[in-house]
TrEMBL record:
SUPFAM superfamilies: S-adenosyl-L-methionine-dependent methyltransferases
Source organism per UniProt: marine metagenome
Protein name (record): Methyltransferase type 11 domain-containing protein
Record-linked InterPro entries: SAM-dependent_MTases_sf (IPR029063)
Length: 139
């Protein structure tokens, strides 16, 4: 990750961490964000979304470009009894997130695909949190 991105993150209040953040004991938070709308880009893994939604403080929206992955996530969330607090949907446009500017409290990136990082920053609220899976390998 380059220095300018780190400087931007520190100035905006964003938190960039690996997946270990969600290993903390209750009360479960995301980088200092204690509730609100959380978007997870990449729906291969829905365990973190399930844990967060069970707190009752987060509304989780999982997004993925693959409809088969979305269907699998939907089934998992339904079987966990949390569909509604957490939902999964296919991305209509791979490079665009379906939200207005500054509306999402936290973004969990499991997969970036064709999504420009600037699109992720566009939807985050000031002081919002950005969690990046180590497998993405931002430079």
């Amino acid at each position: 990750m380059n220095v300018s991105l780190l400087h931007f993150l520190s100035c905006t209040g964003l938190v960039l961490v690996g997946s270990a953040l969600l290993e903390a004991e209750e009360p479960l938070t995301i980088g200092g964000v204690h509730g609100g709308l959380v978007v997870q880009v990449g729906a291969d893994e829905s365990d973190a979304a399930a844990r967060l939604s069970r707190t009752g403080r987060y509304l989780i929206h999982l997004l993925d470009i693959a409809s088969s992955t979305v269907e699998k996530a939907q089934k998992s969330l339904r079987s966990d009894g949390i569909y509604g607090l957490a939902s999964a949907e296919a991305l209509a446009a791979p490079g665009h997130l379906p939200y207005a500017e500054n509306v999402v409290n936290a973004v969990m990136l499991q997969s970036l695909g064709e999504m420009p990082l600037s699109e992720v920053f566009r939807i985050l609220t000031p002081g919002g949190a950005l969690l990046v899976a180590p497998s993405i390998g931002l430079k």
